[in-house]
Amino acid sequence: MKKTILSLVVAMAFCATFLPAQGRGGSGQRGGSQGQGPSMGQGQRQGGQMGSPSATTTRQQDRDRIRATDQQRDRLRSCDQTADQVRTQARQMARDARGSQFNADQARQQSDQIRERLQTMQQEHQQLMSGLSTQQQEAMQSRIQNMQQIRERVNNHLQQVNTALNQANPDAKLVRQQARDMEQSMKEWQKQYHKMQSEMGAEI
Fold first, then answer.
1. What sign does the dihedral 106-108-111-112 (CA atoms) show?
2. Which domains does the chain have, with CATH numbers?
């Protein structure tokens, strides 16, 4: 009987010593697992960010694909200068057509000068357009279409001026209005060139 009681006491003492130690071990394992979890998640997120190209890099690549050559840069500059000359001539015609200052013969000379300058500008513009690569044409398709519409308006304004000047008594007011509209259209035309220069990295 004494041996049986002694055996039970020894068994209970053994269990009291072993079980708490086992619990602490399990807790340590759980803590280690928790410590590794966030670290792995951060690594995966960082890897995903590093693997995807940034928006800035993409924009730079697009810009490089349509970057102007030296020849295109020179043509853009020449086209802009010629357009500015047409705009200046149209503005002067509008000023000279004010009231008693209007001189029909002088206006006809100005009209001829504008027409010649427009022909030069259109030739330079055509050379610029034909020298664009396929990627450049696609990237600036809407801008090219806008310039075509503006050019048609300019030609129409000049035609209206010539029609008025061919009358026996030219209408100075009509000439002035058409010249002012022509100047405004040329201003819009130049804006398109400036935007092209910016997009193609050819700012003056």
1. negative
2. 72-199 (1.20.120)
